[in-house]
Structure prediction request, 389 residues.
Amino acid sequence: MNDLLIKNTTTFFTATFGNAPDKIVLSPGRINIIGEHIDYNDGYVLPAAIDKIICFTFDKNNSNTANIHAIDLNESVVIDVTKEEVVTDIVWTNYLRGVLFQLKLKGYEIGGFNCAFSSTIPTGSGLSSSAALECGFLFGINEMFSLNIKPVDIALMGQSAEHWVGINCGIMDQFSSVMGLENKVIKIDCRTLEYTYHDANFADYSLVLFDSNVKHSLFTSEYNNRRIECHEGLAIIKENYPEINSFRDCDISHLTNLKSKMTDNVYKRSLYAVKEIKRVTQACEALDIGDIATLGKLMFETHEGLSEDYEVSCAELDFIVALAKDEKDIIGSRLMGGGFGGCAITLVKKGSETAVIEKFTKLYVDAFNIDLKIYNVKISNGTSLYKNN
Ligand code: GLA
Prediction:
């Protein structure tokens, strides 16, 4: 599937700009096994890059102009790379403008270039198409203009680009898109950015993504609100326990002692963060020893926390996870990514995938009159150069 994507993107570039691209960059989306909404809370996360990708084609054009085509949208934009960027109404261009803004901010000098890109990452499904866009674009510019930006800094600049667009995200998506490795999940310590790779071996279970096919419009404002609420919670904890610097150093007892000093929401968000940080460590240990039952149980617990305490789920995702809980051939399931729609990442017994998918698809459409979408993903390498002339 990606061979066709690469071929079509290259053909488009050549037909549009009159020469073959000099650089082809592949930039993946990501899944996350566990560790949701804690990358910005000094937690650990356990994501992986996947084989759904954006293919970028590039060449320098000896001008000051970037001519960029979003093939799937049939839209293009012309940007003067010497000018200061501003956020515009055309959303997809903002992620790219955000990258150019970061380059300028950090003093990198670039010239004009031509670029065309096309994607197999569904948007709004919690698979981080925006991180793939930012990081793949920056990776290509880095290659074309030999800027020597290191991979982790590509991820950090991608994250800053996303902040510039207006989502105050953590580092998980950009880091996993850039640093992914085939068949490995990455345990990232989001406080220090230290990371370790772990075998993505789910024994008798397959990873299946059930896409609720809903995208609730609350995402950006509610996401940013959660960060503010967690910040408030931590400030109250620090005030009362000066030795504590982060949710990572907290126990549930610290929180229960402070419950009366927090609003109900701030208490619930903080409680979720403290519990989720502990779950990731347990989940990673379980994965390492092939204890998929424990991993699955923790995934269900995460969903419950995201739904009840963090309140970032929705009726459709709760429905899918409730079905999963009742299904003997499923060992774990939870909403993945920022929430308010998108996918439930689910571990389904090998051999029963088809039967489970058929059953869920029918029950879901009966309940919501919405088609459930299914993705089978392979854990793959991070952002990379496909061809270097
Ligand atoms: C979005 C953000 C990430 C992370 C997840 C939730 O994908 O971009 O930084 O916070 O939500 O875990």
About this structure: The chain has a mean pLDDT of 97. The CA atoms of residues 46 and 187 lie 5 Å apart. The chain has eleven helices and 13 strands. Residues 36-37, 39-40, 128, 169-170, 172-173, 337-338 surround alpha-D-galactopyranose (CB under 6 Å).
